[in-house]
Sequence to fold (490 residues):
Amino acid sequence: MFSSAGFAKTWQYIQLFKEGLICTLSLSALTVLFGFILALALALMRMSKIKPLSWFATAYVELFRATPMLVQLFIIYYVVFAKTNLPNFKLFGFIRFERFFPGVVALSMNSGAYLSEIIRAGIQSIDHGQTEAARSLGLSSRQTLMEIVLPQAIKNILPAIANEFVTIIKESSICYTIGVQEIMYAVATTKGATYRIAEPLLIATAVYFCLTFPTSKIIAYFERRMSRGDKR
Amino acid sequence: MATRDDIITVNNLCKHFYNGGLKALDDVSYKINKGDVVVVIGPSGSGKSTFLRCLNLLEVPTSGEVIFDGVDITKKYHVDQNGKKVRQNIDLYRRKMGMVFQHFNLFPHKTVLQNMTLAPIKVRKMDKAEAEKKALQLLERVGLGDRASAYPIQLSGGQKQRVAIVRALMMEPEVMLFDEPTSALDPEMVGEVLSVIKELAETGMTMVIVTHEMGFAREVGKKVIFMDSGKIVEDGTPEQIFENPQSPRLKDFLGKVL
Ligand SMILES: Nc1ncnc2c1ncn2[C@@H]1O[C@H](COP(=O)(O)OP(=O)(O)O)[C@@H](O)[C@H]1O
Ligand SMILES: [Mg+2]
Fold:
C-alpha cells in the first residue's frame, strides 16, 4: 500500500500540497465571509413582516438544504457561469480565478443557507425584553436590531460560525471536481503524475486533520469559557 | 393647541391576544393628568401589565384609543394643527414615556454608562460627553456613582433596577411607567428601589405604577386603580380604595393581600 519509494515520488510534488493548503484556506475563509453576509440577509428576510421576502428566504434555505452540494456546484460552474467570461488572472500567482470564483459562489450560497438558520436561532434566542426595553426608549426597530439584538445574537453564535468554517474546510474539497487547486486537486494531480494514490491521500488526510482538529479544540475551549462567563 | 390637564387618556381600550379569546383588557377608559401618580393593583392575570403596555403600544390594542398629549397614538395617521395628514411615528411618543420592567431588561453587552447613553445619543442626538455627564449625575442621585463602568451582570438586582430607572430618565420622559418594579427583587432590595421611585414622585413626575406593595401604593399613590378580569373595577384616592372599598371583588382582594 505505502512504500518509501512512493513517498519519495509524492514528495517531489509537495509544492502542490502547499498551494492546495493556501487555496483551501482562501476558499474557506471567503466562503465563511460571504456565506455569513448572505446568511444575515436571509435570516432578516425570513423574519421580515414583508411576506414575499420571507417566502423567498424560506424557499432558498429549503432548496439549498434539500439538494446535494455537488449538484449545486455543477449548476453554478457549468450553467450559471458557463457564458460569463470571468477574468482569468491567477490569485497568489497560481489559483485560477475563473474556477476559484464559481467555487466560492457555490460554497457561499450553500453555507449561507445553513448559517442563516443558525443566525435566526441566535436572534430568536435573545430575550424579547431586550427589544421591548430598547423600543420603550424610543429606538427604532432598525436601531434595536443593530445595537441590541444582533450584537448579542452574533456573540452567542460565534462558536457555531467558527464550526461552520471547519465544516467548509472539509466540504471545500468538493471543488476539485471543477478544477479548483485545493488540497484534493493536489492529490489528483500527484496521482496522475506518479501513479501513486495512497501516499498523496495520506498527506491530504494529515493536512486536513492538522487544520480542523486544533481549530475545533480551540473553538470548544472558547465556547466553554464563554458559557462560564454568562453564568457569572 | 389649548393646554390640557390630561397627559394620557384611554378610551374604550380592548385587547384580546387571540381572536375570540378572553379579553385581557375589556373596555377600559381612564384619564391620567400631569403630575398624577397612579397605582394599579389587582390579582395576577387581571390585565395590569397589558393596560400599562398598551399606553406606549408595546402591546397594540385590539380597539380603543390611547390619547397622548392630544394625539391618538393608536392611529397610523393624525391631523396636525394645519389640517395636514401626517404619518405617525410611534418612536416619537415612546421616548416621552419611560418604562421600567419587572426583569430590568438592561442590555448585558453594554456597561451601565452605555446602557444609559445609548438612546439619548442615538434618538435625541445628544452629544456623547453631555450624555455621559448627565448619566453620571443621575447615577450619583441613586447612589450608583461608582458603578458607571460596571456591566449589568456585576450588579445586584436592586442596583440593576435603579440603573433601569435612571436609564429611562435619561430620555427626560413626560411619564414613567413601572411594571411591578420590585417583584423580581430579593426582599432586602425592595426598599432601595421603592425609595428611588418615591423620590421621583416627589419631583412631580407623572407615573403609572403596577405594584403588589400595598404599603407603598397607599403612601405614594395619588390615585389607585383596582383591576380585575381586564376591567377597572374601582378607582379613587388611596383612602377611598384602601379604607372604604365598595365592590365585593376589591374587598375580597384587599382581604387577601393586606
Ligand atoms: N402575550 C400574551 N399572549 C397571550 N395572552 C397573554 C399575553 N400577555 C398576557 N396575556 C393574558 O392576558 C391576561 C392579562 O395578563 P396581564 O396583563 O399580564 O395581567 P397582570 O399583569 O395583571 O398579571 C392574562 O389572562 C394573560 O394570560
Ligand atoms: Mg403583570
